[in-house]
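WP5 quarterly update. Target: MarR family transcriptional regulator. Source organism: Nannocystis radixulma. Length: 158 aa.
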Amino acid sequence: MARLTAAGLAFSELIIAVFRVNGLALAAGDRLAEPSGLTSARWQVLGVVDHGPATVAEVARTMGLRRQSVQQTADALARKGFVDYVDNPADRRASLIALTRAGRRALRAVEARHAAWASRLAARVDLDKLRATVAALDDAATLLRSPPPPRARRRRKD
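Structure tokens (predicted):
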């Protein structure tokens, strides 16, 4: 069995902590979004299209999710009247998701609750530690996006 280096163990612990925090963050996001008729996933999609209409594929790439899951979320948002599908002048086959007035209202309400919640929690954590954590997570994301270096080949003894 391969052994982890000290750095490899620390990186593995970081990934496990991210999984744990992700679950907690999604649950907290659901609580923040629920009064506006949203979930964390719906809130995230609205946040992306708040910057301008986008295709499902573009939203999926932005969020690092599968296109099919974003499609299901966008369809649910459309049924609730939070987004509309509009023509895409660049590609007739891929409609754009556009925020409606109701979607923008719901998003702003969630953002206000989020701002108060995040500020309350952040007041209990050292700002330099938060910034260092964000930098470490950005570094981890960069590493995870890049292809692994080629493994050294063992020479066969003939």
